[in-house]
């Protein structure tokens, strides 16, 4: 094959420019990235070899080598992994196919558009943009690779200027060899980061790649003074020089050590390098289990949620090892979906290495381990809530939504899980603007006379506090939970009650207040309703299908109207949440409630008495309804008609 030139895809070019030109200080991480790719390639080969013995033979070697060359100013990283075919080189290296990299670009652009202060460094750490980081230290990068099972090797070469070339290369061992032609700042005695210096490289490997499961080897030149028989250096003897190959990384998996001997920093470093995070985890859970199933698990709750946690492109799952040998990267069957934010690994001698994905899914052992892990995570969170409130609230900020989804998803799950989850929920409440409250804490504050746990929906504190329905509860000094996320109400709906106290939306059904004052007021309202039966009927007639009924309200004080949903069926907030996902079949049964003590009501009565068939009466009804919608944050069905009617009434 003749040498052929290709252009980078536009995004790749952009990323390259960023890599090369950004004022990115931490350039040394390129080595971590290239070693991590090499380690991935070795994992892939190992996996292939498990399932495809004939093709690959048993004679495989698994290692990574660093080859610095001070004379030619190059650094070469060699792995005996799966290798890349010509197509692989074009697809994987020439384009940004990987969702993480693409997401990185999008995020970066967003940050630039919003003039966010996020530095490139943080962003690169977050996404681990991988291979392209080589251009941070190199003027030219060449890859020679031969894929396992193929005869021909290919050479890929680029100076990062927008194009790359590919040509056939002499056949060699399976694997990949990446040679960096170092940029002038990265070699030579005076260089701040001298990448042809063995001790510098050794230090970088220790720092970033110590736990890589394959040996990372490098040759060292050792100078020695010959010694006499007693071991004393011989005077005047000429020094000898020999080459010694050393393995730079310890390879001992941290989790196989005794918990007592591990420092938190060591956990942190492992977490960062295994899961490509720049921030240490919020919590680390290291467990050794013996009994029906034997395993070690090392789980991490990250300090921040990945931006795509709830998107379909997020891949949840834990790493799986058997006797320290890596089996697979994202085993989904180990944790329930709502705990998708948990990172970590499970190492179990009970798992057979020779398993295909399908078998894995049915593995009983795996299910058993999974149950235990869920329990571990939940009890760690429960403990954190009790003992480290501040930390828990940070967790809640990042992953609270997952817990709510967990509640929602466990409708058909174990009661035991639900019982734990319900105590992990936190809400904003009317009692304190700064503090979040658990359901338990709310209940402890509840006066004995209060029979329900009240909650309100809205996009934020302010819009909830302005809801007309809030006024009465505020007057009566009843605490209300504030629900800002549509998932909240679904979660409460699933729970139905907390510790035998039912939940009650302030915008749904009967509030269930039974103090003397409320009862007296209700009696009065019932009387007014009787004498105004026709009026209420006619309002309903004008509004037709838009509402199920028009009522007189006992939950309003100074406002004229509000819209509530019937006790059964979805609430208005739920209806809106479904509508946002294009599922319009969930409709709340809307009830228009009027305040009989409001001036507007007497006005309505008057118009109704004298001219109930007039356009004015119809306009009033329509306007009241539209107003009630607006208060709930819902657009009137016909905003222009609404504005016209207001204008007409105003100019009368
Ligand atoms: P990531 O490692 O996150 O997928 P990279 O930019 O680091 O992203 O690498 C892009 C892709 O190039 C890898 O997914 C892999 O397919 C391929 N690749 C990179 N380095 C190697 C290597 N040493 N051996 C085999 N394939 C590699
Ligand atoms: Mg990579």
Automatic annotation (TrEMBL):
Alphabetized Gene3D superfamilies for the sequence: 3.30.230.80, 3.40.50.11260, Heat shock protein 90, C-terminal domain (1.20.120.790), Histidine kinase-like ATPase, C-terminal domain (3.30.565.10)
Residues at which ATP binds: 33, 37, 79, 84, 92, 98-100, 126-131, 176, 357
Keyword DNA-binding annotated: no
GO-annotated cellular components: cytoplasm
Keyword set, alphabetical order: ATP-binding, Chaperone, Cytoplasm, Nucleotide-binding, Stress response
Region (C): 577-652
InterPro entries reported in the protein's UniProt record: HATPase_C_sf, Heat_shock_protein_90_CS, HSP90_C, Hsp90_fam, Hsp90_N, Ribosomal_Su5_D2-typ_SF
Pfam short name (any one): HSP90
Family: Belongs to the heat shock protein 90 family.
Subunit structure: Homodimer.
Identification of the protein by name: Chaperone protein HtpG
The encoding gene: htpG
């Amino acid at each position: 094959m003749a040498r052929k030139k290709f252009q980078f895809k536009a995004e790749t070019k952009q990323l390259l420019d960023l890599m090369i030109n950004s004022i990115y200080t931490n350039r040394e991480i390129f080595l971590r990235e290239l070693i991590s790719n090499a380690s991935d390639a070795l994992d892939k080969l190992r996996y292939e070899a498990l399932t495809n013995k004939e093709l690959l033979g048993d004679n495989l070697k698994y290692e990574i080598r660093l080859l610095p060359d001070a004379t030619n100013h190059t650094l070469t990283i060699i792995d005996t992994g799966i290798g890349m075919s010509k197509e692989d080189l074009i697809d994987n290296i020439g384009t940004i196919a990987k969702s993480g990299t693409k997401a990185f670009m999008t995020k970066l652009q967003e940050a630039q558009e919003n003039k966010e202060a996020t530095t490139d460094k943080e962003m690169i750490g977050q996404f681990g943009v991988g291979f392209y980081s080589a251009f941070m230290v190199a003027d030219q990068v060449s890859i020679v690779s031969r894929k396992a099972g193929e005869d021909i090797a290919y050479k890929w070469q680029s100076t990062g200027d927008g194009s790359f070339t590919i040509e056939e290369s002499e056949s060699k061992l399976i694997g990949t060899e990446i040679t960096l032609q170092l940029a002038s700042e990265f070699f030579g005695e005076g260089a701040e980061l001298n990448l042809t210096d063995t001790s510098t490289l050794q230090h970088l490997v220790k720092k970033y790649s110590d736990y890589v499961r394959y040996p990372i080897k490098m040759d060292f030149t050792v100078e020695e003074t010959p010694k006499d028989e007693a071991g004393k250096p011989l005077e005047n003897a000429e020094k000898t020089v020999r080459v010694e190959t050393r393995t730079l990384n310890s390879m001992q998996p941290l989790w196989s050590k005794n918990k007592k001997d591990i420092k938190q920093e060591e956990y942190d470093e492992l977490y960062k390098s295994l899961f490509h995070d720049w921030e240490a985890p919020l919590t680390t859970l290291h467990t050794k289990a013996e009994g029906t199933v034997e395993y070690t698990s090392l789980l991490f709750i990250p300090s921040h949620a990945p931006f795509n946690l709830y998107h379909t492109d997020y891949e949840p799952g834990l790493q799986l090892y058997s006797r320290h040998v890596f089996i697979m990267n994202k085993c989904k069957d180990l944790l329930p979906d709502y705990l998708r934010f948990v990172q970590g690994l499970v190492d179990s001698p009970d798992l057979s290495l020779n398993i295909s994905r399908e078998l894995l899914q049915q593995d009983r052992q795996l299910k058993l381990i999974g149950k235990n892990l869920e329990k571990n995570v939940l009890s760690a969170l429960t403990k954190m809530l009790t003992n480290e409130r501040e930390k828990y609230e940070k967790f809640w900020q990042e992953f609270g939504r997952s817990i709510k989804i967990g509640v929602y998803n466990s409708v058909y799950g174990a009661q035991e899980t639900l019982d734990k989850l319900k105590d992990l929920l936190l809400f904003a409440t009317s009692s304190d603007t700064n503090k979040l409250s658990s359901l338990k804490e709310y209940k402890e504050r509840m006066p004995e006379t209060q029979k329900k746990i009240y909650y309100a929906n809205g996009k934020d504190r302010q819009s909830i506090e302005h809801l007309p329905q809030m006024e009465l509860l505020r007057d009566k000094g009843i605490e209300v939970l504030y629900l800002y996320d549509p998932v909240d109400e679904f979660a409460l709906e699933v729970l139905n009650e907390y510790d035998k106290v039912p939940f009650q939306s302030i915008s749904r059904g009967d509030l269930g207040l039974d103090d003397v004052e409320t009862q007296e007021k209700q009696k009065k309202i019932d009387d007014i309703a009787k004498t105004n039966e026709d009026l209420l009927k006619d309002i309903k007639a004008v509004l037709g299908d838009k509402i199920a009924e028009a009522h007189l309200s006992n939950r309003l004080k100074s406002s004229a109207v509000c819209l509530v949903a019937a006790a059964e069926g979805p609430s208005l907030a739920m209806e809106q949440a479904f509508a946002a996902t294009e599922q319009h079949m969930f409709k709340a049964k809307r009830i228009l409630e009027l305040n009989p003590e409001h001036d507007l009501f007497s006005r309505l009565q008057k118009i109704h008495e004298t001219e109930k068939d007039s356009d004015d009466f119809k306009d009033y009804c329509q306007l009241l309804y539209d107003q009630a919608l607006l208060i709930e944050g819902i657009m009137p069905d016909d905003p222009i008609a609404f504005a016209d009617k207001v204008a007409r009434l105003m100019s009368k």
